[in-house]
Amino acid sequence: MEKRIGIIGAGVAGLHLGLYLRQHGMDATIIVDRTADGIARARLPNTAAHFAVTLERERLLGVDHWPNPDLHYTCHHHSLPCQKLAFRGDLRRPSRAVDHRIYVPLLMEDFAARGGKIEVENMGVQDLARLTQRFDLVVVASGRGALAEAFAPVAAWSPHQRPQRQLLAGLFTGVRRTDPVGTTLSLSPGHGELLEMPILTFGGMASALLFETVRGGDLEALAHLRYEESPAQFIATVLEKLARHYPQVYHRIDPSSFDLCAANDVLQGGVTPVVRRGALDLGEGKFAIAAGDAHCTVDPLLGQGANVASHSAIVVGEEIVEDVAFDARFCERIERRRRERVLGASRWTNLMLQKPPPELTDLILEMSRNQPLCDEFTNNFNYPERQWDRLASPQRMRAWLDEQGAQAAGAAA
Amino acid sequence: MEKRIGIIGAGVAGLHLGLYLRQHGMDATIIVDRTADGIARARLPNTAAHFAVTLERERLLGVDHWPNPDLHYTCHHHSLPCQKLAFRGDLRRPSRAVDHRIYVPLLMEDFAARGGKIEVENMGVQDLARLTQRFDLVVVASGRGALAEAFAPVAAWSPHQRPQRQLLAGLFTGVRRTDPVGTTLSLSPGHGELLEMPILTFGGMASALLFETVRGGDLEALAHLRYEESPAQFIATVLEKLARHYPQVYHRIDPSSFDLCAANDVLQGGVTPVVRRGALDLGEGKFAIAAGDAHCTVDPLLGQGANVASHSAIVVGEEIVEDVAFDARFCERIERRRRERVLGASRWTNLMLQKPPPELTDLILEMSRNQPLCDEFTNNFNYPERQWDRLASPQRMRAWLDEQGAQAAGAAA
């Protein structure tokens, strides 16, 4: 059986899939809408953490270019300033963030050096018919543009029709790292959330700040401030909001050196979460597979996007290598293998953006005094399906609390 | 969390689930519409083979009452008399059939002896509300009656609205066993199929004959013959049809001793295959789970019913024991774990009852001269999801043939 694979998109999903296929000697072509240089020079595309499960895949793919422990972080600091709560969850294995404008061009280079073909062209739905002539299987691994929309949203898993948060993400200088080095997750109920993360940028280590702002809340203005109109006012406003809502982060900032790393190191907008059908019947026995953001788009709050994309890419890659037909059963096998993780990420992220049920509030309070609970929650960033087993209903959250209570009582006895 | 489990039905699904729960010290009640005596005295309920995967579960449950190898069989004999083809597939581990009127009462006794509660009462949909008061979870494990119909059929997996075959199943004396002892699967294209199987009956080992008859074919009359109206005519007709359509079986029959083992050792009718939703939301946070025939009913041709029921029972049992809530996520986890096997059995059975695509005919021909292929097909009776990976599309069947061809060439080289 011929297996010529066409991959649309050079994000984590497209690259990990392409590299996996080349590692197994298969014909793989990545079609991307910009050159590697264009990607490197573009505006900040995201602030993506790669959790340990993803770093492990990068090692297996031979593209772990950043093994230096100084580039990693080992914990999540949680803070709820309004309740004067601050606590830490430790990761069993570290995480790492690298600006994707560094990461993607380098992995494109790896892919090409290993015999992968890269073509620069903007693809639309009208191109699918032509692509099915060239390839035995087309994988759409780009969430941007109309190609992703060819995969219908699954209504049961796509409860929102608009973004749940307006976002400001930027790479900043002047933020002192936490000790131990970690990502901070801070909540300002009614206004939003802040994710602060050490990240490798073109200029070395810096801080990614991701402000998730609630419509009508005090932080919403951040999503609409324009740095290029007045850098000074932009920075002053960000500092003012940090001081008011996220003092634990503000206290680590040196105002005199606090600024964007560069003028285009900022991204604003919003993400409508969606889970799409994973496969598209193109007729004549051919199918297209969706991966990454084309399959499932999540709000960036929990940093699940890149990790789910990488998981999905390897599942798709393994099935391509192992299976004997690219038929409906092939699509079904892929869907079955990746669904738990994809849905876990999507549902968990959606849950955290809603008004928390009382059991979730209790869990957060309990985490502040219960290290094993907090550590499990933190390590589950690698395994969103396990987190969902814990959080899928008030009964489950209550059971988690009870289990921890029982263990604490046992340890005390 | 309290886990009082109510199980409706004492077939393989209900009994294996109940026994599994008792093995794990859990509160389990089986509600059945007849006493064990009533079941033992009833008309033949089915002719169910238990494949090795099911026998293994019976060993683990401590209810393998028939370990004697003489009661087992070790191969499937296939015959296509019209093409003068006869060939054998060997089972890696033996299968066994015991009349369920022996099997079920004995396992009910085991269940009761191990602390399981048995209640004799006929349950309907109107009883569900009352049952949810008594039990934390209700499992409907009986395909008979309106309770199963409370679980909606899944249209995509339930393509047929009526039986694909009219059936005559009976336990017979006077059929000499094959050598080696095996089940025979015979095809009479356009007329039907015959499954002949060694089975332990009240009178010792005998032969189950299951005639699957095509509407309008020469065998259809068998489904409507009434033994009680004229035993002699019944037997004469069965013999005549065997001689014409299934000579390989007919030649092993001693007409002078050929008869039903007993007057009620016969079952006629037809099965409309259906896959139902596996869970039912009963409101107030309670759910009912469907298992066995309530979940998935298959035509008996491939003997998948009992085996899928047993698999499903253990999946449900494990999730009951391990999980912390009987919520929608619990139902989803069960569905995920058992779906592949259940759907594999259902789809494969449905496929074998259709006019075969040319690739399937080629596969059957190839099996007659290719032992590894035939053995894999035969052993896959234990793993219908693997069989479906082989048979789900013409491309897959062709790939299986190609793979076998390649291996044969390799072996010859």
| Distance between the ends of chain A | 63 Å
Number of separate domains of chain A: 3
CATH topology name of the largest domain in chain A: FAD/NAD(P)-binding domain
Number of helices of chain A: 14
> Looking at the chains present, what oligomeric state does this protein adopt?
homodimer
Largest interface: A-B, 20 and 20 residues
Structural class of chain A: alpha/beta
Shape of chain A: globular
DSSP strand tally of chain A = 17
Please give the CATH class of the largest domain in chain A: Alpha Beta
Mean pLDDT of chain A: 96
CATH superfamily of the largest domain in chain A: FAD/NAD(P)-binding domain
Structure description:
The structure is a homodimer of 413-residue chains. Chain A has 413 residues and is of the alpha/beta class. Chain A folds into 3 domains: 4-49 and 100-160 and 273-352, 3-Layer(bba) Sandwich (FAD/NAD(P)-binding domain); 166-270, D-Amino Acid Oxidase, Chain A, domain 2 (2-Layer Sandwich), CATH 3.30.9; 358-412, no CATH class. In chain A, 39% of the residues lie in helices and 24% in strands. Chain A contains 14 helices and 17 strands. In chain A, the strands form 3 sheets. In chain A, strands 3, 4, 5, 8, 9, 10, 11, 12 and 13 form a 9-stranded mixed beta sheet that branches. In chain A, strand 10 and strand 11 form a beta hairpin. In chain A, helix 1 (12-23) runs parallel beside helix 4 (100-113) and helix 1 packs parallel to helix 9 (305-322). Chain A is globular and about 60 Å long. Chain A starts with a strand and ends with a helix. The model of chain A has no long low-confidence stretch (mean pLDDT 96). At the A-B interface, helix 10 and helix 14 of A face helix 10 and helix 14 of B.
